[in-house]
UniProtKB/TrEMBL annotation, chain A:
The keyword Iron-sulfur does not apply. GO terms for biological process: endoplasmic reticulum to Golgi vesicle-mediated transport. It is found in: Cell membrane. CDD domains: Longin, R-SNARE_YKT6. InterPro entries: Longin-like_dom_sf, Longin_dom, R-SNARE_YKT6, Synaptobrevin-like, V_SNARE_CC. Residues 139-199 form the V-SNARE coiled-coil homology domain. It is a lipid-anchor. Belongs to the synaptobrevin family. PROSITE patterns: LONGIN, V_SNARE. One of its GO terms (cellular component) is Golgi apparatus. The keyword Isomerase does not apply. GO terms for molecular function: SNAP receptor activity. This is Synaptobrevin homolog YKT6.
From TrEMBL, chain B:
Belongs to the protein prenyltransferase subunit alpha family. PANTHER family: PROTEIN FARNESYLTRANSFERASE ALPHA SUBUNIT/RAB GERANYLGERANYL TRANSFERASE ALPHA SUBUNIT (PTHR11129), PROTEIN PRENYLTRANSFERASE ALPHA SUBUNIT REPEAT-CONTAINING PROTEIN 1 (PTHR11129:SF3). It holds the Pfam family PPTA. Keywords: Prenyltransferase, Repeat, Transferase. This is Protein prenylyltransferase. The keyword Cytoplasm does not apply.
Length: 199, 435
């Protein structure tokens, strides 16, 4: 049961998104994979956030990973994305996203969204560590009255989030945020269809 | 022997902190402005003691190693059957070549039995240090393919048996009756029972297992190895030749293990091997408790379930309530409920009753919505399946039913029936009772 990454994303509709702040725990990955896994986490975070309409929640499964996204929208146009393994329970994941975004909005002024590197929000690291075991976190295991699970859209692969005509392989290839090593890891994982490698 | 085989063999035999195979030919990792420390090890990567070997290269070097290895193996065989005068003069690099070629073979195929046996031969001949070889095995266990190989774990135990002297023969241990293990040798020659290891060794072994379980999840052979170590630990605790101070130190390690197993289960709720391990560990404690030789087996430090944060059954039940869709947790609960029966203590009646009540509640008309559990709508069918089976199991343990065709079919039928309130009465209905 693992949370791999947590991110707050500025997601204006129909425009590219920006990760405002993020935290990750990639210690369970091998030494040379770690960097690439980190890059892919960011890549998928943005790809998924950009394709989630405001006010909506989605869960995207890809190999042994699940990404949950909540596009809060609103004046701040923020979305929260959490990437976990298959075991991590769904409700606490969304509960955490709501909490994270509320906290972020309260503490970080909207004016600093233009300069993400200047944003200081160390709480995101605390959230990541604390919620590795959802039972330890205060009461997020309880049912959230306002969370209607039937409204969460579930995607069995990341391909189904993409627009018509978009292919994930093309997006990976074209991405400038992914290093040559990362793309190599991705290509090999796809070929071998091996889980628990990159994606 | 080819130069790259020798280079790779040398890096592997240094027992690096980790080993992994990189995709393709590795060219993405090297550029003209790569620093010297990187280029020094090219075409391999060796950063901070972590070895990376490109896939394509590994396979190529594997093929090149095979003839070298076969030659070495043939010569090692000769050395066993005929004691040659000054054998090194004939093939002075026999040891080095064997080490290098076998290491490369094992990188690609960590279950290469002949390669491991050749290395065992070198240990027997005294040209390979057993504790260094243990570190080499630890490196192989960081490979995803390696961590799951029973043969590697067996090789590890072989090395441990070589490194440590056996305990002096003792009378029958009282704990063996509880654990069902025959004598200090344990269950056959592959155990570590009867070895004199200190607490540092045990901690190392447990650490290696933990790492292997991270690399390859739900790692059955790793947990088996862990259990054999724990069993050896328990044997040592009750052995008359162990000093009081040693006993205290070893008991502390066992205590840590119990806590660690629970923490692991909290974070890995599908790892059934870990749950079985926790139950068997609890049995080992039971055996220690009944031994008169162990400190605190009666008064000073109670070594019962309370020493590890409450009874195991409560831990299991809390997890089942939190994650009812996971079958492994329901089986963990059953395993934990079974323990008092095996060690002669009274059955945790309240846990049994609560578990049953919870199962029935899950099966009642109004599930999920206003329940404080985390049953999501998609898991409904799965959860009812587990709950029905628990009820059936409880009835079977209470000897209210026999495990025969009619009952089993009834269980399956009720488990598959959606949205219907089910209680134990429904299971009992129309089934044969024991006379």
């Amino acid at each position: 049961m693992k949370v791999f990454s947590l991110a707050v994303v500025l997601a204006p509709p129909n425009k590219p998104s920006t990760i405002l702040c993020s935290a990750s725990d990639l210690s369970s990955f091998s030494f040379y994979q770690r960097g690439s896994v980190g890059e892919f986490m960011s890549f998928f975070t943005k790809t998924i956030a950009e394709r989630t309409p405001q006010g909506q929640r989605q869960s995207v499964q890809e190999n042994s990973y699940t990404a949950h996204v909540y596009n809060r929208g609103g004046a701040e146009q923020l979305a929260g994305v959490i990437i976990t393994d298959q075991e991590y329970p769904v409700r606490p994941a969304f509960s955490l996203l709501t909490k994270l975004l509320d906290d972020f909005i309260a503490k970080v002024p909207q004016s600093s969204y233009n300069t993400p590197s200047a944003i200081s929000f160390p709480e995101i690291n605390t959230y990541l560590q604390k919620y590795q075991d959802p039972r330890q976190a205060d009461a997020i295991m309880k049912v959230q009255q306002e969370l209607d699970e039937t409204k969460i859209i579930l995607h069995k692969t990341i391909e189904s989030v993409l627009q018509r005509g978009e292919k994930i392989n093309d997006l990976v290839d074209r991405s400038t945020a992914l290093s040559a090593q990362s793309k190599m890891f991705y290509k090999t994982a796809k070929k071998q269809n091996s889980c628990c490698v990159i994606m | 022997m080819h130069e790259l085989v020798a280079k790779l063999g040398d890096l592997l035999n240094r027992a690096p902190a980790s080993v992994e195979l990189l995709p393709g030919d590795g060219s993405e990792w090297f550029t003209e402005d790569s620093p010297q420390e990187i280029l020094h090890y090219a075409p391999f990567l060796f950063v901070e003691g972590n070895l990376g070997v490109p896939h394509k290269l590994a396979y190529k070097l594997y093929l090149q190693s095979v003839p070298t290895f076969q030659e070495c193996r043939a010569r090692l065989r000769l050395r066993r059957s005929v004691s040659l005068p000054d054998p090194d003069a004939e093939y002075p690099t026999l040891t080095d070549d064997t080490l290098a070629s076998s290491a490369v073979l094992l990188l690609v195929n960590p279950a290469h039995q002949s390669a491991l046996n050749a290395r065992k031969r070198l240990v027997q001949l005294g040209t390979l240090d057993a504790s260094h070889e243990l570190r080499f095995v630890s490196a192989l266990l960081t490979l995803r393919d390696g961590a799951k190989q029973s043969i590697l774990w067996h090789h590890r135990r072989w090395l441990l048996r070589r490194l440590h002297p056996p305990l002096p023969a003792s009378r029958e241990d009282p704990h063996t009756a509880a654990t069902g293990v025959s004598g200090p040798q344990g269950d056959g020659a592959d155990s570590l029972g009867g070895l004199c290891l200190d607490e540092g060794w045990f901690r190392t072994e447990f650490g290696v297992v933990s790492q292997a379980c991270e690399v390859y999840p739900r790692n059955y052979h790793a947990w088996t190895h862990r259990y054999l170590c724990a069993q050896a630990l328990a044997t040592l605790c009750t052995h008359p030749s162990t000093s009081q101070a040693q006993r205290a130190a070893l008991t502390e390690v066992l205590r840590e293990e119990t806590a660690r197993a629970r923490e692991w289960i909290d974070r890995h709720v599908s790892d059934y091997s870990a749950m079985q391990y926790a139950c068997r560990l609890r049995l080992l404690w039971g055996g220690l408790r009944s031994s008169p030789d162990v400190p605190g087996s009666h008064a000073a430090q109670p070594m019962d379930e309370a020493s590890a944060d409450g009874p195991l059954a409560e831990h299991a039940w809390a997890l089942v309530k939190a994650y009812p869709a996971h079958e492994s947790l329901w089986l963990y609960l059953r395993g934990a409920l079974d323990i008092p029966a095996l060690s002669g203590l009274p059955i945790g009646q309240s846990i049994y009753a609560h578990a049953q009540e919870y199962a029935e509640r899950l099966l009642s008309e109004e599930t999920a919505r206003d329940d404080a559990s985390s049953v999501s709508p998609t898991d409904g069918a799965l959860v009812r399946n587990h709950a029905v089976r628990l009820l059936a199991w409880v009835l079977w343990k209470e000897k209210k039913v026999q495990l025969e065709g009619r009952f089993v079919r009834r269980v399956a039928l009720l488990a598959g029936t959606p949205s219907k309130g089910i209680t134990r009465v429904d299971l009992l209905d129309d089934t044969a009772h024991m006379s």
